[in-house]
Amino acid sequence: MNDFKPLVSAIVVTYNCAKYVVETLDSIKSQTYKNIELIVSDDGSNDNTVALIEEWIEENKMRFTRCEISKPAVNTGTSANYNRGLRLARGEWIKFIAGDDALFPDTIEEYIKYAGLHPSVQVIHSNVVKYFNELAEANRMNPVDSKIYKINRDGVTAQEQFQILLRVCNIWTPTVMIKRGVFDVVGDFDEDNHLWEDRPMWVKITAAGIRFEYLDIQGAKYRVRTDSIQLRTKKKKILRFLGLAKAPEKNIPDSLLKQKPSKKIYPGFFIQINRVSYRKYLKHFPFFERQIRRMLYGQVLLVDKLNIPNNAFSRFFVELFRAPFNVYVKRVNKKYW
């Protein structure tokens, strides 16, 4: 398999990442695997992210088979940003990475080596290492052991993974690498979900019978930024509404939570995932669970439609209504961890 050296498209998705993007780009440049093209898809950054990227590419473009950058004038949302990068890519394998995360030097080489030994594999993911603010050893946080999750166990089928992903998500987006042909089967990222790009795609992939293969290595560095820490209370509240109180932090991306406080009870991201879940996912649950989730999803959409004011009194009664149903959902979700 030493001759197996397919082109890999490293797609860096950015939005106002000036402080971190050079570190991300350096991590791709430092890959021990050589057959890489670099694609950067910016989403209308209003800092100097694009200028830094262009300067870096000019200095380092000889390292890659080719370099391309997409830089629209306006912000279009995460899903559209991923799709722009995907349309520019020519590689047989696609490796997305956010502009504030990074790869370990041998990540792509290890993935390609595994793919060469297992030709039927179409999606690979791995473990993530979290760092506080700076990607330095002194800032390394408690390790994440992804192999304990049911979705990563040997013998789990794509259909079983699909059922897991309907309820919980234990796949770390910066570790995922996807064979280009997968997108020919399942289509692009859903731009109707402009704030929620990853999990809906994982659901589509497993629904198509394509399995996520877990490689037990440390595949990516995930930066837990100070501004993210300040949002921890909001995250926990959203996850509690979802019945996912113990979910990985990236179930709700930081970039989506940095919206201005809403006058509505539920934040826009939470409304969006409930709308998507109500329209697309309800039919896949067993009858009783489907009715419980229909009530929970529908309640969110109704509260939003009625513009119920966001105050302590309203929040109390909203949570009081949800409490018994959330207890059931939490018990069900626990079986899928």
SS element count, helices: 13
Sheet with the most strands, sense and barrel status: 8 strands, mixed
What structural category arises from helix and sheet content? alpha/beta
User: Which strand order spans the largest sheet, edge to edge or round the barrel?
Assistant: 3-2-1-4-7-6-8-5
CATH class of the largest domain: Alpha Beta
CATH topology type of the largest domain: Spore Coat Polysaccharide Biosynthesis Protein SpsA, Chain A
Q: How would the global form be characterised?
A: globular
CATH evolutionary superfamily of the largest domain: Spore Coat Polysaccharide Biosynthesis Protein SpsA, Chain A
Q: Which whole number gives the mean pLDDT? A: 88
Structure description:
The chain is α/β, with parallel strands linked by helices and 337 residues long. The chain folds into two domains: 8-224, Spore Coat Polysaccharide Biosynthesis Protein SpsA, Chain A (Alpha-Beta Complex); 230-334, no CATH class. 42% of the residues lie in helices and 15% in strands. The chain has helices at residues 21-29, 49-60, 78-88, 107-117, 158-165, 180-186, 198-207, 226-229, 232-242, 254-257, 268-281, 287-305, 312-334; strands spanning 8-14, 36-42, 67-70, 93-98, 102-103, 123-132, 177-179, 212-224. The protein has an eight-stranded mixed beta sheet, sandwiched between helices. Helix 1 runs parallel beside helix 2 (49-60), helix 5 (158-165) runs antiparallel to helix 7 (198-207) and helix 12 (287-305) packs antiparallel against helix 13.
In short:
The chain is of the alpha/beta class and 337 residues long.
